[in-house]
Amino acid sequence: MKDRLNVAEMSRSPSFSMKTDSNPKLDRKSLRQWVVGFCIIKFDLEQGQLIEECHPPGCLTQDEELEVAFSSFPDSVSQHQNRSSIHDCIFFFRFRRHENSQQGKVSSSEISEVEEKERSPKLVDQVKRLKSTGDCKGERYLYGYVFNRQRHDERLKRGGDQRSVVILSHNPYTSVFRPLLQIMGPLYFDIGKKALEHIASCVSIWPAPIPGKLMELPIGNAMFKVNLPPAHSLPSDSGVLFEESNSSMAPFLPTNQSIPQGLFHDSDLFGIFRGLLLQLWVLWELLLIGEPILIIAPTPPQCCEAVAGLVSLVAPLLYSVDFRPYFTIHDPEFARLNSLQEGDIFPPVILGVTNLFFLKALRTVPHVISVGSPSPNSNRPVLAAKSSTGRFPARPEGLGLQQFSLRKFSPSNLLSAVKLRREGPLCLMTEHKEAIWSTYAATTKPDTSILNRLIDAGMSSRVEESMSVVNNEILRRHFLELTTNFLAPFGPYFRVVTPSEGSSPFVDPPPLTPFNADEFLGNLSSRGPGKFLSKRMRSNWLDLYRRFLRGNNFMPWFQRRRAVAEQEQQRLWRLARMNTNIQNFISKMSELEIIDSFNAIERHLLGETQLLESKRGNSDSAAAFQKLKSDLRAVFNLLPKDMQELLLLNPQKGALLQGSLEGIELPGNESTLVGVVVDSVSPR
Q1: Strand duo 349-353 + 293-296: pairing
Q2: Judging by beta carbons within 10 Å of its beta carbon (0-12, 13-18, 19+), is residue 44 exposed, middle or buried?
Q3: How far is residue 531's CA from residue 546's CA, in Å, rounded to a whole number?
Q4: pLDDT in tens, 283-312
Q5: Distance CA 182, CA 147 (A)
């Protein structure tokens, strides 16, 4: 990929230099928009993992420091000896950090119950707040991006030492932090802890992250140009509410293919799963329905790439299942998973591991995938050559069906597959093989036309890397189209309604179409899955939708898309109110309709007032406030005399009409009065 350096290159400092002028002052608030902190961790022979530096100080609790330290080194059980003097690698991990666990703690089941009932606008807003703040479980996830250096020196104990440079962030921005590590890692080993302070100061002057946008981020004499994942793919536990667009919703495919549509769009999907390409459709279904998956790889970079690649496979779906790109026995979650007995349901999670001990400890996990190459000098699997027909040749290695000819199975291939299935994942204890063990029967058929479009670059690493980019785009485009078409039947439940010509924009907009799972499945069964899916799915396709509705991904995605649709509908109706000529509108009304319009305008005016008073308003809020104030005055002047007198007797309404509430500051204005100043408040 463009933004990566290979292992050999990382051991040398990239072409980078710090600016000669003094470092900018560290702005910790701005820094936290991107990074929680930077750590230097040393592996000590007597004391184990030790955090030598943590910048800024105090950014982690003591428990978090331990978890970061244990997750920042390759597993010794899985590491192959490399005889070179320096060996560098980059990987990342993810762990749960508990925050405000005693405040605002609401279970996800409670939120689901709210969605299933007829909800008032207040409940809708409550769900939005809970989902956007991440207080549903009182926890957030922290990502650790690691640059690990192993230095071999026979003069030292055990013949060498190792250190890790770690960037900690709440953001799943591999497209940012991977190239940043490629600069920061070697820089630290050149100049020491000054590298942390310099990089922290540079990051603190970056603009705030804008999801789904191409951003230019200066770092020393370098400039990163990176695409951030879109808002609709970011977990709500990030604690930051980004504005989402209704246009990013299924069933619409994106018009600009260069814009990422999900997390980890920079992952090398083709490179890490090239031995299991025919199984990608099975994996896509397992991810869609939220099944637990254990991924075994020889090295941390490979298992991270596999986990990231899987998560990216279901874009643009919001993936809500827990995933751990690099999981170790020191993670607090391991004790709970290890205690599961035969017959217990394994929780939905994707675990990327390198320690083969997990094969015995987590025997109840229903789906096991082994990927990658154990070659000590490469983090990339060896690419098999295509035959003269352009298809992949047969190779008698188990269930990695991409290695079979796409035309026919030979007896030796079939016997190897049966043997590998019978032996189970424990056969990896003696020899690493790329394979998948699962009893899941997929509904989706592999698209061999997609596989035959993939390009084989042979053994040239430079050509292979550029061809991998092309292959990744082919695969990602296909699965994006597949996921978008799968989600398309839910489109009517997100469809917004705008005021029809001649109708009042001051009434409340109608609710979105209510969702009932049985009714949805019944209608879908009668209608069919659509032309795109009909050609690619077997006759039991409706079972996949049933599993999806029961899985952990459906409700968070559905709730979030509904919230975005409701927000868009409110915006459109507000815009209609702004564009309404009130004089023409009320000239055709009866007296009763004028009274109803007064009450509706007053309600909207109070809503805009609350927005402005809470400092959540913007220039649109100020304009809407002024327009509604003018409209309310016009309607008041047409009310019957007795109605005007009655309104003025009500203290709250009288104060509103008299304009006697406290002045508040509006964006772009010095101040204005909350309320309406009528031409004459005395009855006509």
Answers
A1: parallel
A2: exposed
A3: 20
A4: 999 999 999 999 999 999 999 999 999 999
A5: 8
